[in-house]
Structures are given as C-alpha cells and as structure tokens.
Amino acid sequence: ASLLLLNGPNLNLLGVREPELYGASTLSDIVAQLSADASTLGHTLVHLQSNHEGVLIDRIHQSLTDGTDMILINPGAFTHTSIAIRDALAGVKTPFIELHLSNVHAREDFRQHSYLSSIAVGVIAGFGQTSYLLALTAASEYLTNKTP
Ligand code: DQA
C-alpha cells in the first residue's frame, strides 16, 4: 500500500529540540528507518515535513488523487490548534493515524485536546521514535483488515 507520513512544525529540529522529551534521533534517522520498515512490510512510504499549515493541508488534499491509502501524521502543535487540518483530513476521507513522540496526556493542559483524534482511526503517543513504528504497524494491519 501507499502510505503518506506527515510531520508538522518543529519536527525538523528533532535530535536538537528538547531531546529529554523527543529523543536523540533526527527526523531523517526516523524517516530512513520507517521507510525501510515500510518496504519490509511491502508498503511504500512518502514523507513531508512542513512548518506551514497550508503546505500540510495542500499535501493532504493531494492524497485524494495520488493513490495514498493511509496517512500517518504527527501534527506537532497543530494538533492543538488546527481546525483547518482537521477539515482537510475529514474532507479527503483518507484514513489516518495521529501519532506523537511524547505522551501528550502527561504534559501541559493545552496539549490535552486534539482537533484530530475524534476523526482518526487511532492515536499513538508516548513511545518516542517507536510511536512511528507502532503507527506503521497499525496502518499495515488496518489496511489488511479494514478495521482497527
Ligand atoms: C508532539 C506533541 C505536541 O504537543 C508538540 O507541540 C510537538 C510534538 C509530539 O510528537 O510529542 O511539536 O506532536
């Protein structure tokens, strides 16, 4: 299947940014590992990171016509602010998994609410780089069974 990995704002700084929260791996480490894991499972993984809400929205819209079967998204802080990203995901109806490196539920109050969770297939948070692998595994199962 064709999987789209989206990473939102500040995730380009992984490895440098608050490593006690987000780990020591860089985004390119994570994406390289995940692409390898995806191909082992027989999937292709395309990746986009952007610090710009509109760029993420445009890429979500492209999933309507580019054959994307499922989206894995770490929306960064847009999780907690972006009705527009929610509307884009709801509009294209491409099933998606929301994922986070940190356990957002163990953090500040303003991270407790996600605009995306209620329309996601599922949510994974708190496992660092492994959150990405768990999301890939879950996507692979979901696409086989068509149910979470
Ligand atoms: C994050 C959690 C968000 O609250 C935060 O704004 C991020 C990263 C995570 O992966 O843990 O940028 O999505």
UniProtKB/TrEMBL annotation:
The gene is aroQ. Belongs to the type-II 3-dehydroquinase family. Its EC number is 4.2.1.10. This is 3-dehydroquinate dehydratase. It comes from Reinekea forsetii. Catalyzes a trans-dehydration via an enolate intermediate. Substrate binds at residues 74, 80, 87, 101-102, 111. Pfam families: DHquinase_II. HAMAP family: AroQ (MF_00169). InterPro entries: DHquinase_II (IPR001874), DHquinase_II_CS (IPR018509), DHquinase_II_sf (IPR036441).
